[in-house]
Specification:
disordered N terminus, 9 helices, mainly alpha, 70% helix, 208 residues, elongated, single chain
Length: 208
């Protein structure tokens, strides 16, 4: 099998601590799973990309599914980090920029996303569902920071933005599948977010 672009497969194995070795394997696996569908990836290929051995990968992670779970945890952290929390920026500019950043990130990890959603190879996997819930919550917290800064947001705001992330999951999935263009998905998500923010602003001004 030819090497993946940007992934060096040869070289002497270096002495690393167990935690360093695990991180290196997860980093290599992240690139491999992003480049090719889950079903086509082998542990041997990931081991070569990580300058390791298949036996060592199995020692640390057991099997491909558990290694993919570790990749998803890293993926979730990086995806949440793409959302900039900066209340000083104009709201419209910040919302559009964050949507672009998330879409750019997902486009780079299209195959990973494909394994996670819809009729992917895992079906309804509780561990994956938990990781995705954590990703949604992290993104919501960053969005709340954009809207309320260091203040305590009302419960209705967290509920509204959690519901919005569910809406976005469908829009993003359809875009990645090619059912709609990026521009169509971006425009719909941005207009919906405007409506959500407007409703939250109106709710905050209503007399109690």
């Amino acid at each position: 099998m030819p090497p993946l672009p940007g992934i060096e497969l040869s070289g002497r194995r270096r002495r690393l601590s167990p935690d360093e070795r695990r991180r290196e394997i997860v980093a290599a696996a992240t690139d491999v799973f992003a480049a090719r569908p889950y079903e086509e990836v082998s542990l041997r290929e990931i081991a070569r990309a990580a300058h390791s051995s298949r036996a060592l990968v199995t020692h640390y992670f057991g099997d491909k599914r558990r290694l993919f779970l570790a990749v998803v945890e890293r993926f979730a952290e990086e995806a949440a980090a793409t959302v900039i929390a900066d209340p000083s920026l104009p709201p419209e500019r910040l919302m559009a920029a964050n949507l672009d950043a998330v879409m750019d990130f997902l486009a780079r990890h299209r195959n990973t996303v494909g394994a996670l959603v819809g009729a992917g190879p895992f079906g309804h996997d509780p561990a994956l569902a938990s990781a995705l819930d954590g990703l949604r919550d992290a993104i919501v917290e960053r969005m709340l920071g954009n809207r309320f800064g260091d203040g305590e947001p009302p419960p209705a705001a967290r509920f509204a933005l959690r519901a919005y992330t569910g809406f976005c999951a469908v829009a993003l999935s359809d875009w990645l599948r090619g059912d709609v263009t990026r521009e169509q998905a971006h425009r719909l998500m941005l207009s919906t977010l405007r409506s959500v923010v407007a409703e939250l602003t109106a709710e905050a001004r209503r007399p109690r």
